[in-house]
Amino acid sequence: MKRNLYLNVQDKEAALENYLDALGEIQTESEMVSVTESLGRTAAEAVFARWSSPSYNSCAMDGIAVVSSRTKGASEKNPLLLREGEDYLDVDTGDMILPPYDAVIMAEELIETESGDGYEIISAVPPFANVRAVGEDIVAGEMILPSGHEIRAVDISAMLSAGVRTIPVRKKPAVGIIPTGDEMTDIADVPDTGPEDGRIAETNSWMFDGLVRENGGIGKRYDIVPDRPELLEEAVLRAVRECDIVIVNAGSSAGRDDYTVHVLRKLGTVLTHGVSIKPGKPVILGIVKGKPVIGLPGYSVSAYLAFREFVVPVMNRFLLSGGRAEEKIRAKLTKTVMSGLKYEEYVRVKLGLVDGEMIAAPLGRGAGASMSLVKADGFCVIPKNSEGIMAHEEAEIRLLEKPEQIGRTLVVIGSHDIILDVLNDLMMESQSGMRLSSTHMGSMSGLIALKRRETHIAPSHLLCEEDGTYNEAVIREMFPGEKIVLIKGVRRRQGFIVKKGNPLNIRTVADLTPEVRYINRQKGAGTRVLFDYLLKKEGIPKMQITGYEHEAATHMSVAVAVQKDNADVGMGIYSCARTLGLDFVDAASEEYDFVTREEYLDLPVVQEFLRALRSREFLAKLEELGGYTAEEIGEIRKIHNFLS
Ligand SMILES: Nc1nc2c(c(=O)[nH]1)N[C@H]1C(S)=C(S)[C@@H](COP(=O)(O)OP(=O)(O)OC[C@H]3O[C@@H](n4cnc5c(N)ncnc54)[C@H](O)[C@@H]3O)O[C@H]1N2
Ligand code: MOO
Of 297, 319, 341, at which residue does a domain stop? Predict the structure, then answer.
């Protein structure tokens, strides 16, 4: 099969409009459901009340039922005596009121007679006072909900009160999901130890199934189709017979086995192959036997975005829904994101509020970075024909997370350590509703973010080469005249992460001979500073280290690179080596602290962070991870550096 080179990508809006036009008017169907099961469904027709509610005149307050006309003339000067059995009946809220009674006086307004045989009242009551008249809430025949209304819990109770038991709702569109690819293994068949080399656990179909349900449809997953066009043809034809919409996943691009587009052309028509969004470019919009068949790219982020932009609008056609309104906010980016001119680019971001300003920290941009979706609070969309957005500029963010949650976020930018995940977990476990959102950019970038008031806390382990101390020296230099505090964190062991048994026998930087493949950390990372310091001490030039330019963003990615033999050695913390069953050669003990502004200490999110940091659970967790000591944990050191 020849490669598909699709260089003519279409604009997203034009492609979608053209596709919806080609699909024409969709015959929507409805089905009857019990009102009690109708939550979230869309009413296919207007719903009318069968009964009135209340269905009888009912007492609205606890007190006595009276005949209103007989209370005329009662006043403070001329109180009226009411006798039990003759003039009134004791009643409670919800009781039926029958003639001749037509009004209720609240218990609080009654003055008991001294003899206890009745009450005195000092004002007259009008007819139907404190009475819920029949039909006061809902009148039989009244329209309760218009057609197209999405049913909520309150609607359910109103319908039931009005005697409506079943209603017609729009039928959920059935969305067929066909995963493809020779390398795919159904999750049920993946060994417990993980997929064999070269195999991939088929996970996208489960994401689509969830997305289909979230958007009001029914997902129908089909077996994985191997890379053979005749099998895909068969699968598509079957799915088209059984479903309203069909998704074919992967095989949408230019690979030799990417023949989805050929199959769809053979079975029907393809209106678009390739749109100007990134990730998500290789979308295929086809029609087979009148049904929409959409080819989505294999990478999970691309697949998710393309689903949002193309499958959801088609599903909304079936539901006759305008779709959910997207919430948007403006936020300041913490770092520059560059973008090509040809595509509209979707950058996932984490959000937080620092000093009253919304801050967006961009996450990993790879199309396969599914964790960027897990962590994202929103997307920043960089338009076509834009080269990108500069750091500290404002951008529009489409929200995925609730705005309230964002206000309860402790923003942490700086050096990475897995204890940040543990602290977030401890904060989330408590009743506070607060969370910690950390972006790993290295110690130096964290301090710069703190300087610019773009983070609450900057975790840092910056060595002062002159005196071997940590953090204080650089803070004094960077924050003259500002009130900065150091929240003491942990001492942690830094060293060489090597394969089990240390086969290359690495003990010191001097053992990093040219045959040894090193993996480094990004510029500005404290671990890189430490490595450079060790090299300098030994008089070893950086350029002599094989792999000095090979960078990873976290300790854990260094450890994985060693585990999977992309490198022989890298510097990192003990706990990461241990988690992956690797060996560790001690090189230094360093201080990993949390830098913040003094004025932030009183913020509830910072207080909650301190609580988690000083908790017994956290100490226990450090013990479990290994490689940490915490003698000064949670202590606060003021670093006020006022120049005289
Ligand atoms: N020469 C070119 N190569 C590629 C281009 C291009 O323009 N020219 N586009 C790239 C872009 S952009 C994307 S996105 C991908 C899309 O590729 P396909 O849709 O053809 O998907 P595959 O190559 O088959 O798979 C990509 C990736 O995703 C994994 N995958 C696939 N299905 C699943 C599933 N159901 N569950 C989990 N993971 C899945 C698959 O194993 C691959 O790792 O193409 C670029 N290439
Ligand atoms: O455009 Mo692809 O969808 O970036 O990964």
Answer: 319
Q: Within a 10 A sphere around the Cβ of 210, how many other Cβ atoms?
A: 11
pLDDT at 644 over 50: no
- What is the rounded distance in angstroms from the CA atom of residue 294 to the CA atom of residue 286? 6
C-beta of 306 in contact with ligand 2 (< 6 A): no
* Domain presence at residue 7: no
Q: How far is the CA of 305 from the centre of ligand 2 (A)?
A: 10
Best residue for ligand 1 mutational test, from 253, 264, 273, 285 (most atoms within 8 Å of Cβ): 253
In whole numbers, what is the pLDDT of the chain averaged over residues?
Answer: 93
Q: Which residues line ligand 1 (CB under 6 A)?
A: 179, 181, 183-184, 200, 202-205, 249-255, 258, 279, 281-282, 297-299, 302, 367
Global pTM? 0.86
Contacts of 465 (CB under 8 A, 6+ apart): 533, 536
Atom 3, ligand 1: residue with shortest CA distance: 254
State if residue 252 touches ligand 2 by the CB under 6 angstroms criterion. no
Q: For a ligand 2 pocket test, name from 6, 258, 278, 284 the mutation site with the most ligand atoms within 8 angstroms of its C-beta.
A: 278
Measured from the Cβ of residue 391, the count of other Cβ atoms closer than 10 Å reads: 15
Q: What b/e readout covers 501-534, taking b as 16+ CB neighbours within 10 angstroms? A: ebebebeebeebeeebbbbbbeebbbbbbbbebb
What integer pLDDT is reported at residue 641 of this predicted model?
A: 66
Any domain includes 288: yes
Residue ending a domain, among 170, 194, 220, is 170
The verdict on 578 and 503 lying in the same domain is yes
Distance from C-alpha of 237 to C-alpha of 350, rounded to nearest angstrom: 42
The pLDDT confidence band at residue 440, using thresholds 50, 70 and 90, is confident
Q: What is the CATH number of the domain that holds 127?
A: 2.170.190.11
Residue range of the domain that includes 182? 12-27+173-319
pLDDT at 245 over 70: yes
Q: Distance, CA 168 to ligand 2 centroid (Å)?
A: 41
Roughly how many angstroms between the first and final C-alpha of the chain, as a whole number? 76
Residue 335 lies in a domain: yes
Give tens-digit pLDDT for 255-295: 676 789 999 999 999 999 999 999 999 999 999 999 999 99
The C-alpha angle with vertex 375 and arms to 372 and 378, in degrees rounded to 5, equals 85
CATH code for position 365: 2.40.340.10
Nearest CA to 181 out of 161, 159, 156, 204 is that of: 204
* CA of residue 280 to ligand 1 center, whole Å: 10
ipTM of the modeled complex = 0.97
- Tens-place pLDDT, residues 486-528: 999 999 999 999 999 999 999 999 999 999 999 999 888 889 9
Residue-level pLDDT at 146: 93
**Counting ligands in written order, which one lies closest to the CA of residue 296?**
1
Cβ of 281 less than 6 Å from ligand 2: yes
Q: What is the four-CA torsion angle of 329, 330, 332, 337, rounded to 10 degrees?
A: 90
**Residue 280 Cβ < 6 Å to ligand 2:** yes
How many folded domains does the chain comprise?
Answer: 5
Do 306 and 333 belong together in one domain?
Answer: no
**Tell me: the pLDDT tens digits for 552-585?**
988 999 999 999 999 999 999 999 999 999 999 9
